[in-house]
Amino acid sequence: MITLAEGLRLPTNGLDYTILALYFIVVLGIGFAAKRSVRTSLDFFLSGRSLPAWVTGLAFVAANLGATEILGMAANGAQYGAYTVHWYWIGAIPAMVFLGLVMMPFYYGSKVRSVPEFLLHRFGPSSHLLSSIIFAVSSVLIAGVNLYAMAIVLQALLGWPQWVAIVVAGFFVLAYITIGGLTSAIYNEVLQFFVILAALIPLTVVGLKRVGGWDGLTHSLNSSHGDAFLTAWKGTGIGEGNPLGANWLTIVLGLGFVMSFGYWTTNFAEVQRALSAKNLSAAKRTPLIAAFPKIFIPMVVVVPGLIALVMEPTLGKSKDGLQYNDAIPVLMRDLLPNGVLGIAVTGLLAAFMAGMAANVSSFNTVFTNDIWAAYLKKGREDAYYLKTGRVVTAVGVLIGMGTAFIASSFSNIMNYLQTLFSFFNVPLFVVFIIGMFWKRTSAAAGFWGLLSGTAAAMVNYFWFYKQGIIAIPSDQGANFVSSIVAFVVGALVMVVVTLVTKPRPAESLAGLVYGTRSPGMEELPAEGDDAWYRKPALLGWGAVVLAAVCYIPFSF
Amino acid sequence: MSDHQHEVEELERESATAARLFDVRLIIGGLFVVYGVIVTIAGLTAGDADLKKAQDININLWTGLGMLALGLFFLVWLKLRPAVPPTAAELAAAAENEPAKG
User: Fold this and answer.
1) What confidence tens digit (pLDDT) does each residue in A522-535 have?
2) Rounded to a whole number, what is the distance in angstroms from the first to the last CA of chain B?
3) From B12, B14, B60, residue closest to A340, measured CB to CB
4) What are the angstrom distances between the C-alpha of B46 and each of A224, B50, B60?
């Protein structure tokens, strides 16, 4: 949960508000302009599977570049130093490349409309319903938590009362998604991506000049925080100490493999962007195109966190003073003149709304297709489901707004809930990966794998770690360990259950398991897709190599 | 081929997105040109306090020019490589080729 200190009010003026107002008008305009392209439910939920790869790719990275991510990663930068790059280079990149190169042919080729729907075809209704319900509930609650975080930030920065921020932002998200569907959400994400960069780049440039460039920054932090603070790996040997509270094994396995693969490859709010691409090649390239901006985002997010630490050495030191989360707002207040300040406020607000929109647009798809149409009202005509989708969007946003109001009085419970739901992605990933590569995996194994993995992560976190039965130095470290536990337990249960139950008939698995193909998957590449710079393998391995190279300056 | 795949293919044929959706490059280009002009003007008229705050960099001017350039890039790209919606003939041909896979 983001909280900001008092006294962060930004010196905004009419110019800044003009820039913000223009943005709101454009957001609504996109919604109305996208409306005429919505004829079927597929248009509404997946943009008719027809968008170009660069659009879905930028939306893919922007859907993750919410304001909580921006403020949070800058905060991590100030708190943990250069160790924060692990979330990007070993965390995100390999998982995104794996999604594009290995998993996308199954997702896109099998023509499923959501991640839970894949479970329906691979494992059957029990795991489908379980994951659909958990996803739907968690998306709405997370949308509400986002909305509440935004209300706190706007109250601190602009002086808006919390309820005004909740109602205004909720209304705009409701309007543009109900009207224009996923296309609206994706177009706004692409726009937000550029606005947020236009805010963060000037902030970083001015900030670096303020602290004497990169050399000045390194010099200041080395003398105040020691030599290890600006390295990625120092002190990560097993048994050694470092700010992150994790060793190389939990970083590589917990964060790099299990947690990140769980998040990036099975979180429908992300995968949905790729499913809306116009063909298989574009779908594969969606996360790969997203990987390149992702590699460089720490330069404009983590670096400002470090700059803030030099400018305000008391950051995060006392409960009443400035907190780590204040890093970027402090720089905005102290360094940006009106004009660019308006862009920065707009970018932050856009990032909040886009983060919420990503949750809402994936929620309406899963609720309508995977719960309503699959179990409650089957076999109606398409127009009925399109209308349901719009109603569900509105209801989802309203519940989110309600959650935000509740969160303002019970913010600790919300923190708890968020941690709880974060434990669901890893078992989901176990079920996917085993189900995709082991043909024999049975329907029951999918369900029990999901359930036992989730339960194991919770037991480890809330019982072993919180009760102090095993000693882990930090919450982050405990998260990494819980993920590994969830993965191992989920996998073991799946293997055991599979061995004692009957496998699914082979003909029902075409296109869902490695080594099989969906009928109709043999589509020829579209014209121009054979250009060398559009080869998925080259893009994917290029991103992995680039991320590895980025580690070099932080490794010695 | 299973039922849901037929259903999705049917919906893809009826989908209007490819044919009727506007190009996002127009929106990005338009908004960034407007923002670029506004922020550049703020840079040209920047007072001493603004300059001092931004460490003697005229950050409004540079950001404004950068945004203007990005906006123009998108508009020029759109002009040079407009998206071509599939023609009616192409769609019909695609529909004809479909049933063979069922």
Assistant:
1) 555 566 677 778 88
2) 6
3) B60
4) 36, 6, 8
**b/e A409-432 (16+ beta carbons within 10 angstroms → b):** eebeebeebebbbbbbbbbbbbbb
Q: Do A111 and B4 touch (CB under 8 A)?
A: yes
Residue A52: what residue type? P
Domain boundaries, chain A: 14-411, 423-516
Q: Which residue of B has its CA nearest to A181?
A: B17
Three-state SS sequence of A108-158: HHCCCCCHHHHHHHHHCHHHHHHHHHHHHHHHHHHHHHHHHHHHHHHHHHH
Contacts of A7 (CB under 8 A, 6+ apart): none
* Residue A126 pLDDT > 50: yes
Q: What 8-state DSSP symbol labels residue A100?
A: I
Measure the CA–CA gap between A289 and A59, rounded to whole angstroms. 10
Interface test with B, best of A24, A40, A192, A204 (most B CBs within 10 A): A40
Number of Cβ within 10 Å of residue A129's Cβ equals: 18
Q: Which of A87, A488, A456 is nearest to A255 (CA)?
A: A87
Residues of chain A in contact with residue B36, where contact means CB-CB under 8 angstroms, are: none
Rounded to whole angstroms, the Cα distance separating B73 from B65 reads 12
Per-residue pLDDT tens digits for A240-295:
777 777 788 888 887 888 888 888 999 999 999 999 999 999 999 999 999 999 99
Cβ separation A37–B20 shorter than 8 A: yes
Nearest-angstrom CA–CA distance, A61 and A354: 11
- Number of Cβ within a 10 Å radius of residue B2: 15
Q: What tokens does B2 get?
A: 């299973």
The shortest C-alpha distance from A520 to chain B (Å) reads 6
- The class of domain A14-411 in CATH terms is mainly alpha
Which of B22, B51, B54 faces A336 most closely, judged by CB atoms?
A: B54
Q: Whole-prediction pTM value?
A: 0.90
What is the pLDDT at residue A215?
Answer: 92
A399, containing H or E segment: helix A382-407
CB A543 within 8 A of CB A292: yes
Contact predicate A521/A511, CB 8 Å: yes
For residue A277, list its beta bridge partners. A51
Least CB–CB distance from B28: residue in A33, A194, A335: A194
Give the bridge partners for A51, in sequence order: A277
